[in-house]
Amino acid sequence: MGDATGRGAGRWRGCGVLLLATMILYMDRQTLASVSVRVTLALGLTERQYGQLEEVFSLAFAGGAVLFGVLADRLSVRWLYPAALMGWSAAGALTGLARTFDELWWCRGLLGLFEAGNWPCALVATQRLLSRADRGLGNSILQSGASLGAVLTPLLVLGLLRW
Length: 163
Known about the structure:
The protein is mainly α and 163 residues long. Helix content is 83%, strand content 0%. It is built from 7 helices and no strands. The chain has helices spanning 10-34, 36-43, 47-74, 77-95, 101-115, 118-129, 135-162. α1 packs antiparallel against α6 and α3 (47-74) packs parallel to α6 (118-129).
């Protein structure tokens, strides 16, 4: 993706990939909230059950942050980051197949767990891709994916629901 000294265009392409991964992560995270009324009606969920879905996501994210932080310090992010991305993508896809509260609860927990891998892996990646002088900008680029995902998700969901 780039060299450790921070030379070459590959380092900025790498930051662009990190931005896109972070954007997708936030889109996965926010989709349920965007369609919560439809989901709760379709599955007959109570407000308490919906709260439990948000709770399991948050707790799994907190635990996953610690787990992936430890792993990112010990394993190659060349393998760990794609594994986390595939994990949260699979959990997001399975969420669309959930037909019961229990199935949705497990999907949200797995989504939270694997999404937590984004931050430690992405930060380690920017350390490897960029020189110290460029890391502030590189981290800002990857973190802007969160805002882009947060803004685009409701628009995309609304468009899909109307379609």
